[in-house]
Amino acid sequence: MTAVSAEETSSSLPEGPDGASSVQVAVRVRPMLPHEAGNTQCIEVLKNSPTTKISNVVRLGGETGPKFTFDQVFPLTTSQEDVFRNRVASLVANCLEGYNATILAYGQTGSGKTHTIMGPSASITSAVQDEQKAGVIPRAIREIFDRLGGGYSDKESASDDDLENDRKRSFDEKVSNEYDVRVQFLEVYGQEIRDLLAATQDTSKKLSIRDVGMEEPEVVGASEMKVESAEEALLCLTRGMYRRVTGATAMNESSSRSHAIFSLIIEQSTVLD
User: Fold this and answer.
1) From CA 169, how far away is CA 253, in angstroms rounded?
2) Is 175 in a helix, a strand, or coil?
């Protein structure tokens, strides 16, 4: 199983912008792989009550097994699109309203983290570029640039407020917004922080974390690449993924041997004509 944690933070709001808890945890259950022993289903996805609209409970080991409750549980048949629309799309919208948003995937080696976050791991390039099979990060990148461009990739998923604001912007020609989008891609390997977007991979250059008071901690010396489109951001993502440290394990031939942090920094400025 892969756990996907969604978090929204703000210095003035103890809860998320929609009134929900600012930290939520969803679990995605993956099917057995061909090389894994056995084919008996040992995990059941259930609902906490008949009135609950979404599945949010997993039971292990049959009818007498223990149950665990989460904010949402995705069964074996869940598509990449369903994961994004249910757990991430709202974070993208809130991020563009000025809130910090974080998606954290965690689980043991082979649990499906890379598949959920990036896409099928057979090829990094195809995983990022394939819009049908793409994971959370490529979809979020495309969604952000779709919205910044004044449109929505899925009109049905846009809220009434989103569409109303879009109409208001089209009538207000005296005010325009400009956006600056930058990406940063870091890897934590052992006790070191590596810049995956650096022009050269100089292993002698050490990065350090500095606490800047009330603001978020920053990694001193880490590069930030300005991107003008989703394609440029995806190119940075692909380039950084190829630079990650990998190694074979008993469960995964190309397991990532580190933690990776991909960040999008979005700054908005208002221009009065």
Assistant:
1) 50
2) strand
Distance CA 266, CA 59 (A): 40
pLDDT at 71 over 80: yes
On whether the CB atoms of residues 246 and 256 are closer than 8 A, the answer is yes
Tokens of 212: 């800047």
Reference 221, options 190, 197, 242, 191; nearest CA is 197
Distance CA 104, CA 121 (A): 18
pLDDT in tens, 219-250: 888 999 999 999 999 999 988 988 886 644 44
Give me the sheet containing 23-28, strands edge to edge.
72-74, 23-28, 2-9, 100-106
pTM for the full predicted model: 0.78
> Could you tell me where the DSSP H helices lie in the chain?
80-87, 89-95, 113-117, 124-129, 136-148, 160-171, 230-242
pLDDT score, position 158: 53
